[in-house]
Predict the structure.
Amino acid sequence: MQVKYNIKDIPEDKWHKRALEEAQKIKTNPKDKDRDLEDDIYPKTKRGHGSEWFGMLFLKHTDNTAKWQDTYDEDGEPVDHKTSVSEFYLTKTIHNYEDALNDKSSDWHINRAKNMPKRVYGWINRYDDYRNKTYSNEYILHGIYEYDKKTKKMVYIDPQVWYNS
């Protein structure tokens, strides 16, 4: 069973509203104040929120309304959804996430890691047209990643294994 969806399967009004609200919050962050809301923050946020909505509509996830959080999986575990254009960039994203979970360089970093979900759903949404930076309507769940405290690594789980166990 491959988990994939078409973005047109998501109710556009709720999805866009939720993504815009988060994009506006991101824009208030001092490190993001110079980023463009309409051409940078909002489109990227909207792509990620499509995966969150799919999880809530079709994978039995529930909304995690805490600040900067995504969803809860059906077993109650908090989940972060990451959406990238390819396996290569998704792998980089997962490694960066793992680094953030392991960062002990300051109290701020330690507290951030404590509040980060230890489960990540990794989605691929390829470019439809690379030159114009437009994306296809198809999202594919590439993997589910769980943080292993012993090895301090994000461990890949194939979606077919996850959903057939």
